[in-house]
Design brief:
The complex is a heterodimer of chains A (317) and B (103). Chain A has 317 residues and is α+β, with helices and mostly antiparallel strands. Chain A contains eight helices and 15 strands. In chain B, 53% of the residues lie in helices and 5% in strands. The chains are: A alpha+beta (317), B mainly alpha (103).
């Protein structure tokens, strides 16, 4: 089968943020050079469908093997890595400093204060009941601190308040929150293999990479996981997590099939034709390499990609 | 829903993009594309697991195993043959590097 496209062709609808935007309207104009030609449009009210139909029910056939929808706190490090993960939990940008105040002896509590670069952040200590307040008294031990503010990448880390008599009892944690997004995005995004895939033997792979400067992998993947979790059209089917490497394997629905194209159908979201994606975060010294690979079904084609649009709609985690 | 509105929304959504006179024929991918496979994904595996992975990519079922290692075992669609070969090759290389480094 030979195709010649007169204007535009589909479809990167798997990309999380983009699909959120793209789902309402998928327009396809195709001319088929088979002795005749026509223009056709395929319109899907995807957003309505996704909003009104529980995905877990609609997609049950396709996602039979899916057992978990990811939540950041449910990502489990392999057992042998967990100790290292905890040890590395105090990171660059998160420093614990003590004042020259009175020394604490073993029986005393620590007074914890968290300082950030943003106003009025939400600060929680996840492994105890009482709410955080500035200078709150804590027994010696390990505490999981979670700091978030809309528009910023949240931070979640452990701090150890050790019971040592040579420390002061005033502990000040300094934690800077980074703005969401990728600085100088269009310069940093690399898009590969966006053309092609009109091959009935198999689908195409699109790869997008970006280098996030001076950021910690934990902050980045947690932020991404939150975004995924907030969407209701994607399923995380597996996660591989190590201290310096986190991979999400994600399935998301698409709309197109060869039959739909040929017959110019108005279609609904077709869970039987889903896009498989791998999203990889990899710590490379002080930067994080982000890799996104999207496995398209046969006959779904990416013709070109705009870095500007990718940056505006995609790198928002 | 009228067509101009569709076009406006289409312009916003873009992952869909413009093919001006897009392709004739069944082309598969852009030139010089190499699928990225991280060595770190394998460096964290145990040596015995790496050995099993290496052996599985030498068998006649290597396509199946390569898919499994990268989470594509639930994905029912074929991958273009060129990419499938790349996937096997890239994963095998990363496993070999990991074995050399840690085993």
């Amino acid at each position: 089968m030979r195709w010649r496209c007169s204007l535009s062709m589909i479809s990167m609808c798997g990309f999380w943020k983009m699909l959120k935007i793209a789902a309402p309207v998928l327009l396809l104009i195709v001319s088929v050079s088979a002795g005749y030609s026509y223009s056709a449009s395929i319109v899907s009210a995807g957003r309505v469908i996704l909003d009104t139909t529980p995905l877990s029910k609609a997609a049950s056939k396709v996602y039979a093997k899916i057992t978990n929808i990811i939540e950041p706190v449910r990502i489990k490090f392999p057992e042998k890595q967990s100790v290292d993960a905890l040890k590395s939990s105090i990171r660059e940008g998160v420093t614990a400093t003590t004042s020259a105040a009175a020394r604490a002896d073993a029986s005393e509590k620590y007074n914890l204060s968290v300082e950030t670069n943003v106003q009025d952040p939400s600060i929680k200590i996840m492994n105890i009941g009482p709410k955080y307040r500035d200078g709150m008294a804590l027994e010696p031990g390990n505490y999981e601190i979670f700091i978030e503010k809309p528009g910023y990448r949240s931070k979640r880390f452990w701090v150890n308040l050790e019971d040592k008599s040579n420390q002061s009892n005033d502990v000040i944690l300094k934690a800077n929150l980074d703005p969401l997004g990728l600085p100088n995005c269009t310069d940093r995004v690399q898009v590969e293999n966006y053309a092609g895939a009109l091959d009935t033997k198999g689908g195409n792979i699109v790869q997008i990479q970006a280098d996030f400067p001076n950021v910690n992998i934990n902050d980045l993947y947690l932020s991404f996981a939150k975004e995924i979790n907030d969407s209701n059209f994607q399923e995380v089917i597996d996660t591989i997590a190590y201290p310096d490497y986190v991979e999400f394997q994600i399935a998301s629905p698409t709309t197109l099939s060869e039959d739909d194209i040929k017959n110019n159908r108005v279609i609904e979201i077709d869970e039987d034709r889903f896009i498989m994606s791998r999203v990889i975060f990899e710590q490379v010294s002080s930067n994080v390499l982000f890799t996104y690979q999207q496995f398209m079904p046969p006959l779904v084609m990416i013709s070109d990609m705009s870095k500007e649009v990718l940056c505006e709609h995609t790198f928002t985690f | 829903m009228n067509t101009p509105l569709l076009f406006r929304r289409l312009c916003v959504c873009v992952a869909i993009l413009f093919v001006s006179g897009c392709a004739t024929g069944n082309f598969v991918s852009s030139d010089n594309f190499q699928i990225y496979v991280s060595e770190k994904r394998y460096l964290n595996e145990s040596c015995s697991t790496l050995g099993k992975m290496y052996n599985s990519l030498q068998t006649s079922n290597r396509s199946y195993y390569a898919r499994m290692f990268i989470g594509l075992d639930v994905y029912p669609h074929p991958i273009a043959p060129r990419h499938e070969r790349q996937l096997i090759h890239s994963n095998l290389n990363a496993i070999v590097v990991a074995i050399k480094q840690k085993c």
